[in-house]
Design a protein that fits this description.
This protein has 415 residues and is an alpha/beta fold. It folds into three domains: 2-64; 71-175, Sandwich (Immunoglobulin-like), CATH 2.60.40; 193-413, no CATH class. The protein is built from eight helices and 16 strands. The strands form three sheets. Strands 2, 4, 5, 7, 8, 9 and 15 form a seven-stranded mixed beta sheet that branches. It has a six-stranded mixed beta sheet with strand order 12-11-10-13-14-16. A hairpin with a 5-residue loop joins strand 7 (143-155) and strand 8. The chain crosses the membrane at residues 12-32, 38-57. Keywords: Membrane, Transmembrane, Transmembrane helix.
Length: 415
């Protein structure tokens, strides 16, 4: 059955509207045959010949560019929940389409938002002129996208269609969006003169994030965030100036269940944006600082802009995992920055194992911030039945013995 549907999608020349018109023309011809009235015959012939000539013109254009591939330019970064994004598709050396015809590039696939959680996506862009088609795509969550793209030709009446290229596999990665706030990141270094000298910069230099977002418009991110990045306080007491540049960050994407639900996916995405915004803000203010980032059993040393870009892509595809026991961390540090969610049931044991200062930033379930599942009204990404899964996140707040707790209470709404 699936092969038959794929064959029809590739070879059938009529759209749904064109199919209805063709059936109507046959019915009108039957009315003429039974009654002998001229009007049903006239409408039947006009409908049939319109479909016929539109089909012929489409086939002529297909023969003119049958061997010219369409190239998807998927090199620029894409961010979840950001408006104005589009995937450019180069049509090569094709001629402009005939009058009443348009080139269409169709993108169909899945966004893997979590464990056994995907969103079916559909996006399409059109242009009469040969050159570049832009396919707008706005997704609610970050993660890997596996899709197939195909170039086709349609008439402006929506009656006929001609497939110009075979479907090709496309892999994309949607990154966590950065928070648009411009509050400064506060540091309180106690003994490093080099760190003190780094504080003598302007506010514009301390937190300038536009350079990290192609096309900017960060205000369009639908987190509606007033995130308190200014509450990320660092108190570094190093033994040497070199050690003062290493900041330890733990990202605890832990979940004891095997399947994720909508609330878990929402909190995981918010935590990713929270952690990435912190890394970007500190790096913008102090390019010489390094980060030792731990995610489960993974450890990443971030020293440069290239490291941050690579880590952003790794963080985007990170899913929940089960915590691998109460292992002891051999690294003894004065302070840690910890990002967690309400589904991290091992957080209490973690705080007891680390008596040093812990700056804890945790997402919780609540109504302080309501986030829409569909950031755009076009419904280009639709979830599956996993959207109805019931979850039981932790509701009790956990305050570190030494350090600070910052919580963001989130809830998911459909629109």
């Amino acid at each position: 059955m699936r092969s038959v549907l794929l064959w029809l999608d590739r070879m059938y020349p009529l759209t749904a509207t064109g199919t209805l018109l063709f059936i109507a023309s046959l019915l009108l011809f039957g009315v003429f045959y039974g009654t002998g009235s001229f009007y049903p015959l006239a409408f039947s012939l006009v409908s049939f010949w319109s479909l016929f000539w539109l089909f012929i013109l489409g086939q002529v254009q297909r023969l003119r560019s049958a061997k010219i591939p369409a190239i998807v330019e998927a090199g620029r970064p894409l961010f979840a929940r950001l408006e104005g994004q589009a995937i450019p598709v180069s049509l090569g050396a094709r001629r402009p389409a005939f009058y009443f015809f348009r080139y269409h590039y169709r993108l169909k696939g899945r966004l893997m938002a979590g464990r056994q959680c995907h969103l079916s996506l559909y996006a399409e862009g059109a242009s009469r002129e040969a050159g570049v088609i832009t396919v707008p795509l706005r997704l609610p969550f970050c993660g890997p996208v596996r899709a197939s793209g195909s170039l086709m030709l349609r008439d402006v009446f929506g009656l006929t269609r001609v497939l110009l290229t075979d479907p090709e596999e496309i892999q994309l990665t949607f990154l966590p969006p950065l928070f648009p706030d411009r509050a400064p990141v506060k540091f309180d270094p106690s003994s490093s003169q080099e760190s003190t000298r780094k504080l003598q910069v302007t506010e514009e230099e301390k937190y300038y994030m536009r350079e990290y977002i192609p096309g900017d418009r960060l205000k369009d991110i639908n987190w509606k965030t007033s995130i308190r990045i200014d509450e990320l306080i660092t108190r570094i007491s190093p033994k040497s100036p070199e050690e003062s540049h290493l900041i330890h960050v733990d990202i605890r994407a832990f979940h004891s269940e095997r399947k994720d639900g909508p609330e878990a996916i929402l909190q995981l995405n918010f935590m990713k944006s929270w952690a990435l915004s912190f890394l970007r803000a500190v790096h913008a203010a102090h390019p010489g600082y390094r980060f030792q980032v731990t995610m489960g059993l993974e450890s990443h040393l971030l020293e440069s802009e290239e490291d941050l870009v690579a880590f952003s892509r790794r963080l985007a595809v990170c899913e929940y995992q089960a915590e691998a026991g109460n292992f002891a961390d051999p690294t003894a540090v004065q302070e840690r920055f910890v990002f967690s969610t309400a589904f991290d049931k091992g957080l209490g044991n973690y705080l007891r194992r680390h008596p040093s200062s812990v700056q804890l930033f945790r997402t919780m379930k609540g109504r302080d911030r309501r986030v829409g599942l569909f950031p755009s009204p076009d419904l280009s990404a639709l979830p599956g039945l996993w959207i109805f899964r019931r979850e039981r996140p932790e509701r009790a707040s956990l305050t570190p013995q030494r350090g600070k707790l910052v919580e963001e209470r989130l809830s998911l709404r459909f629109f």
